[in-house]
Amino acid sequence: MRIVGLGGGVGASRLWRALVERVDPGGLTLVVNTGDDLWIHGLRVCPDLDTTAYALSGRQDIDRGWGLRGETFRAMETLRGLNRLTPDQAPWFNLGDADLATHLFRTGGLREGRPLSRITAELAAALGVGPRLLPMTDDEVETHVLTVGGSLLHYQEFFVRRAAGEELRQVVHRGAEHARPAPGVLEAIGSADLVLLGPSNPLASIGPILAVPGVLQALAATAAPVVAVTPVVSAVPITDPGEARRAASRAVLLRAAGLSHTASAAASLLRGVADAFVLDRADAIELDAITEMGLQVALADTLLSAQGHARGPDGVAEVVDTILDLGARIGPRQDRRTPGSAS
Amino acid sequence: MRIVGLGGGVGASRLWRALVERVDPGGLTLVVNTGDDLWIHGLRVCPDLDTTAYALSGRQDIDRGWGLRGETFRAMETLRGLNRLTPDQAPWFNLGDADLATHLFRTGGLREGRPLSRITAELAAALGVGPRLLPMTDDEVETHVLTVGGSLLHYQEFFVRRAAGEELRQVVHRGAEHARPAPGVLEAIGSADLVLLGPSNPLASIGPILAVPGVLQALAATAAPVVAVTPVVSAVPITDPGEARRAASRAVLLRAAGLSHTASAAASLLRGVADAFVLDRADAIELDAITEMGLQVALADTLLSAQGHARGPDGVAEVVDTILDLGARIGPRQDRRTPGSAS
């Protein structure tokens, strides 16, 4: 069974971890958002690709929620000292010493002219990542936000440095209009048996992937059912600080688009893209609203721990079974395939 | 007293350390070779500038002979793991975790469009380096060597990766012909009271500085006496492995130029550039040969420990007194100043 997952970093990789407990990792292709990628201290950093690779290779720091387990921070501590006279350049994006190796590998490769997709494949192989890992594009696409205060910021600067603490006027995916999907992205979608839209920020993580020319068309043309997992669970209080930050950012971005921070608002962005939507059981009250958008809706416990672990008794997350059941129920979408389109 | 020192990394910085025990560091300008600089793992690394800055700020690892004291190597160890499937890209130039902060500071600054000279000044200030530190140029000049086996290598690749273990056909300073001296270099030489050519590899460290258009002219035009300190001491057996490597490289480069690994061969390269030459007392047998080249020659114990410490009883290296005496004895070179030239 060939499954393609589209998504960002933390939320999506929890689902992918849960998924590979049920399906063959070799049949799974992950198309990862690179709109969060940034140049910082001369390095090309790809937060979502790295989070995904670290999570799927079991290297992630579960407690901290990002980066590598057992990490040290000598380089950044030293850099802070070097920046004491130039505080505006001081590091705000923390890079661990072991994590730096990933960025050095990548930046060196880019400088030598290798495309990001090839470097990503090399890194994934070296780390022992089971699924195939693809950046959405080899081109530089960067999500920028315009705050109501008039600052134009890279998304990471808004999210990390400013703690997602400002209202926004606009979100743009710079460079997206001229970007080409990375080699393999359209082919994977076209030949998939099931396509998943992970529980990632709809505007900052899924949005950039859909903004790459050709991706929406491939999703429309594929025979595979397209199933989305809700990125929003409104009815469950958030206790984890990392999740609180991610929720705050999702809410700000949705507000900038005139939407509320609800599952149905997230679903409304996927109208015409997804066939089905997995709604958290806690938000069951939104079921009818989403059904009315023309999406099939299934309920599940969607909140996963960092290990991607299950609530279910068999050790596999209920949401995985719900997704696979939905996919089987919908089956190949013969009707939506148009002559001459991909696959 | 305004002193300008031209030099490379390890050897020269020992002399500069000894010198600042006698003279006001604020009056000392160091023009440092950047021909060894390289792009590696996406970072711009400037070995001679960093060695000089680390030595003069007391941060150098004295035992290892390079890099920072108390260094760790997690990033490089992790990178080696990432490169297990791509061994041709595996690190051969060791970068410590704290040292990485310097390269991140620099590479980030270059990417933002700041010139190397400004970044170097920022780093020197942050590290607390007393003398003024100038790269020879803000432009990229890289020393490459052509081996008899036909390999064209960056000097660092020859020196570090191949342990200077091959005979050479040719040494070229790529980009030198179009390089401009960094802001302040010609002015410092022009207004100096004394110019020193440090005990650095004459072809790999002093050579690139002299290859930057304008430097030779400034040295010819300045009123300051130009005093060179021998980079070669033939008559003293080498025991330190780092010094053995440097000596091997000097010997190979001198052989490629048809010269022997002797003080007089090194002096012959400075004919018409230097006024005087400080010869090691152990090599006194070469005194007449160097005098015949038109150079004033003084004898001293020139070998310095990594601390730049003295052999003399007053705690200052004899070679420093010898240099200052020579400078005072020669005095301003009114005769060599041509109308309309720098100063």
Task: Characterize the structure shown.
2 copies of one chain form a homodimer. Chain A is α/β, with parallel strands linked by helices and 343 residues long. Chain A has 13 helices and 12 strands. In chain A, the strands form 3 sheets. Chain A has a 7-stranded parallel β-sheet with strand order 5-2-1-9-10-11-12. In chain A, strands 7-6-8 form a 3-stranded antiparallel β-sheet. A two-stranded antiparallel sheet of chain A has the order 3-4. In chain A, helix 1 runs parallel beside helix 2 (47-56) and helix 4 runs antiparallel to helix 5. The first copy, chain A, is globular and about 60 Å long.
Set down the secondary structure blueprint.
The structure is a homodimer of 343-residue chains.
Chain A: E1 3-7, H1 10-19, E2 28-32, E3 38-40, E4 43-45, H2 47-56, H3 74-82, H4 97-111, H5 116-127, E5 132-135, E6 142-147, E7 152-154, H6 155-161, E8 168-174, H7 185-190, E9 194-197, H8 202-211, H9 215-221, E10 226-229, H10 241-256, H11 263-268, E11 276-280, H12 287-291, E12 296-300, H13 318-330
Parallel strand pairs in A: 1-2, 1-9, 2-5, 9-10, 10-11, 11-12
Antiparallel strand pairs in A: 3-4, 6-7, 6-8
Helix pairs in contact in A: 1-2, 4-5
Compact summary:
By secondary structure, chain A is α/β, with parallel strands linked by helices. Helices cover 37% and strands 16% of the residues of chain A.
